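WARN retry 2 of 3 for item q-0093 after timeout on previous attempt; input resubmitted unchanged.
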Amino acid sequence: MTIIRSEWISFLRQYGPIPRNDNMYDEAIHRIIRRKKIDPIIVESVYLSELVENFKSSNPKSVILTGTAGDGKTYNCREVWLSLNGSLQTWQNDDKIKEVLLPSSKKLYIVKDLSELRDEERGILKLFVNSVLNSDDSNVFLIAANDGQLIEAWKHIDSDLETERVKQCVEDLLVSELKEMIGYHLKLYNLSQISAATLFPQIVDVVLEHQGWNDCNKCSLRETDETDKNCPIWENRKRLEGFKGDKLIRSRVTDLLELCELNGVHLPIRQLLLLVSNLLLGHPEAKDRLMSCSDAVKIVDDNKTSLASIYRNVLGENLTERRRESTDVFATLGRFGIGYETSNTIDNILIFGEDDPDLNMYYEELVLNDLYYGADQTFRANQKDYLEGIVDSGESFLNSLQSQRQRLFFVIPREKEEELKLWHLTTFQYAGEFLSDVYRVAAKNGKVMSQITSRISQGLNRIFTGLLAKNNDELILATSGSHSQAKVSRIFEERISVPKKRGENVQIRMNDIGKLVVEVKLSPSIAPVELPLTLVRYEFLSRVAEGALPGSFSRECYEDILGFKSKILKNLGLRRKLDEEDIVDESDLSFSVIWLNQDGLIDDKIVEVNYNEE
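OK item q-0093 returned
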């Protein structure tokens, strides 16, 4: 038997969630590459060509690169330096500020990490201020810093009018998510705005196409006569590449990453590289829980290949709970609860599918069709013991069941998603609809289906009033009489039409800065009120519309919706003022109250208060 010890696998392993992954940092990458003589993993930078073009132009602008740790700030700085004929040796010295002459004869200062500047070096920021305010200045800057460092840096230099102007410009660019402002010779690139869902497939392709995999060609474990004796690393690679021509696992992971972004969570390149490494190499019994070639041999000999399942590794199940929760990408994906959530249909297929004629077709396609990670020896043995009622078999089978639910989430075909209710395997049952029928439709300026808008409106009504109302073609605005934040509001204020009518409407759309929102418009002359629509809020409103109690799902969402209601009431006050409806007749002490009629719809009735003036 020929077993290859691949330097490539050893190198890839360093990107995973191991205790000391120095290879995750740009400064250490080239040292390891030179020592191991391995081609680097190069993910094409979104902005690199634009940056290089700027600095090679006749009138270059200063640039700030911001973003979270691991977004590639240092990488972009280094590549710009090298493209301008700077030497790699000079780049790797201890100088915190690099200088190079540009084709325009201006001098470029590169600060690869603003936080590393010593106090005596921070004076260079005064030169930066001059370069931003004066396009004819002889100096240009490329500064890498996260948001906090950018704000903190100004505290260490003497403040004057010009410095305050540039400081305010930088803050405005950060807040408004713009790249440039008129009147300032500066560009700001926020690398955290680069979509993880866009980067992930690119990283997968770069890793899978790396020539280091050629090491595996001579390994006898790559392909054997017994399928379950194949190398688990190579098996995971085949599945990530496109198991039987289907790239479903890749697209499902991409969907999850896109949903994370829509929920306000950004995952940098560093975390995505960590995820891909863990997908391929994860195993709970390997050293540091990531397989090397020697680990793979032992795992095959011990019949433990099922624990290397790529479908478990994507959620960090190979790691200890503590390390999983302390690793951003796994903590984020873990919030979907995949494997811990389920449906009766899925569990019945996994437990009774072999003997149930109504479920056997699904069992053969989804379980028996995969002898490596599906109907492997461990699962079949645990299933048999469980069905025969053997004592102490329960816990082992439940663990196997959890792994199979995780696998099914990534292998159930697209055409069977609705039939088998795929997203019931997660905490967010409406996530698939939110992604496909709401976000992607709105992103193309399409109209979100009316039944979805109606359901969200019904959820809003139940929170606005505190009543289990069925109204879904109008928003009911009500207060408690004293304030709008009461759990139950009975004092009627107004009905707002959901379909467009007399300048009123409620719609789900992308706003002017590309954010998905629920928009409530009361009048053509008044700016609409917007509620940013995240995955959590969408799930919350949908669950409330189908009968869940608001406080039982998300207290934070509940309070956000009440805040949204207050803004709508404020706009209602503006509309009344414009329409001169706020003129109060002191002799009129009537008001309207609301209640649910027998059909579950909200009715209102005027109540008059009479009193005798003595």
